[in-house]
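A reminder before we start the practical. When you read a complex entry, don't treat the lines as separate problems. The point of joint prediction is that each chain is placed relative to the others, so the output describes one connected object in space. Small molecules and nucleic acid strands, if listed, are placed in the same frame. In the example below there are two entries. Take a minute to note the order of the lines before looking further.
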Amino acid sequence: MKITTFFGAVAAATMTAGFASAGTLDDVKAKGFLQCGVSTGLTGFSAADANGNWDGFDVAVCRAVAAAVLGDPQAVKFTPTTGKTRFTALASGEIDILARNTTWTFSRDVDLKFTFVGVNYYDGQGFIAPKELGVSSAKDLDGATVCIQTGTTTELNLADFFRTNNISYEPVPIETNAEALQQYLAGACDTYTTDASGLAASRATFENPEDHALLPEIISKEPLGPLVRHGDDQWADIVRWSLNALIAAEELGVTSANVKESAMQAGNNPEINRLLGTEGNLGEQLGLSADFAKNAIAAGGNYGEIFAKNIGESTPIGLARGLNAQWTDGGLIYSPPFR
Amino acid sequence: MSDTHAQTVAYVRDTMLPEQAPPTTAAGPVRWMRDNLFSSVLNTVLTLLSVYFLWVVLSLVLPWVWYGSWTASSLKECREVVADLGLAHGAACWSVIAERYLQLIYGFYPAELYWRANVTFVLMLVALAPVLYPNLPRKMLWFSVLYPFLAFWLLWGGTLWTPIVAVAGFVLAYVAFEVLYRVAGSLVGVIAAILVPVIWWLLLAAPVANGLASVIPLAIEPVESAKFGGFMLSIIIGVTGIALSLPIGILLALGRQSDLMIVKAICVGFIEFIRGVPLITLLFVASTLLNYFLPPGTTFDIILRVIIMVTLFASAYMAEVVRGGLAALPTGQYEAADALGLDYWKATRLITMPQALKISIPGIVSTFIGLFKDTTLVSIIGLLDPIGLTANIRADANWNGIVWELYGFIALMFFIFCFGMSRYSMYLERKLKTGH
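Here is the predicted structure of the whole assembly.
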């Protein structure tokens, strides 16, 4: 903990001293590629295949931003970051944007001096328990041993949840998700708690998934989103509106299949026209080309397509849209208007 | 007498009987087992218990290893294949190794350039051979000296002029020393030998290399550090750390015993400071803190930073191991060297250091093995060494949930390297043994 505090202090000191004048957009254009921080490996969100090509839900955000800025979704270099190195990598300028299933919290936004540009996945902390335990609610877990990853927000949420419900638990602190799953399957703990998306993905890999149940309680809000450094508002705007373009595209029915055609000439829907740059000068206002949103959408499709391809119900991870449905479908995914 | 004898005894053997094989109970495997396994009641019981234990373990592990699937394309498919076999305890999914072994060895190094990594590895063995086996021609050591520069060029690519210019710094240092030593004496010579190459590397090397490269490129395709991973990364960090930590460690050990106060203070301070912090802290310094200290935009290669930190760490431990060897020498050896009229460096080189190093071999090799295994810590700072890659491979939806096979493979590879080092050290100890 001492080290973390020390690094945080150094980070804060350096942040206030420098970076105010940094022009990330110019840097990225000069380099010719986007340096994007991702997770060292999280199923569905970021993973490299046997040939070293990165793919996943978070990776798609990086590719969309690269396409918007440089016109090429492949102009990205990925820096694998761990939970411990991610914030310093961003604060020190080693990476231009961090898209690593990072929860948007007050202290990360304010104290660590980052700008969260939006939310690309609304997650929440859940519990998994073997069915033979006979537990139907997390509130029945009085006295249970709980596997928990150390150094994450989930550890704090867990303590809060058990305290507010006035029940006791015995934590089994564990470093990585893989280790936690081994411990859970070996019976070292009665239940394992982490982000519900991760639990669902992990349960799908068990030998007997039907023997394990996700408990209904979601005990925390975990809005995950890409973030950039404080102090470069233009760059934050670019990343924010690249993400919003993907979300707006789904709402407006623009997909990777029809985006090229729609961007050829102005159509009947003025909002689509403004989004794709056939009307108005939104791209120019951002300091990008008029077709930045078109490039971002063409990179991997709109938000819904990216979701379906990487973590949706047709994938082994099989997550339902739930909170992450468009606002028109009762979810929370909502882009401010392009005008 | 003989007559009497001849008449009283009917037959006398006049040749020796041929030697007979001892009875089976007193020789061969039976005898060995009686001596070693069943020599007493307690030993018999222990032997039987051990055999039972081995049988239990092996009867579980061997079928799991042997019947494993090599061809499935995902964990799910593999489980189906294995379930069809009907084994009580399942079987391994080696298919993940079959699919990803190249990645575990080379990381994300471009596949068409694997030959460069292979050539570097083979040349490493060639460069190590004269160091490890003194029977080989001494001229091969020149290749060992030049090898690091060649390896750097082969692995990272770019223009050949970069390593050549780097070597030129050492040549310049030698020339400066030789010239000024004759003109102005040894102190000026030593100072010049340090200053000249530093000035060369910091100020002149880059423009000269760029200039030469623009005339004659001599370049091969560059590969950036982010693509390095797997065992290649472990070996690069491990071998560089091992090769550099021994000489630095020896110098530190000598410095710690020195009578010169400043030298001694610096060495003691360095050793105690580095040994006082865990390696992982140094790695965090390398990966995160240095970024803040360096001016923004400086690209100081992460692998280089890690190698420097690992080397410093191993050097401090090495210094203490060597100091242990020096302390074990009888004072008579030092006095004998003085009595022969040898100066400090000659006495160290010819008398004390060879004996001290011989005593320290087990400790030195232990430090090497520890260092090589410690390279897995770099996964915590996000470098994709084999351990770091396991997280990445599991993030692939096809292989999510696979654990034992990956770690088993990595453990086997590390065992091969560490066991090799350990056997070599035993060979060296036998070879250098002079106690009779």
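Discuss with your neighbour: The first helix of chain B runs from residue 2 to 8. What might explain this?
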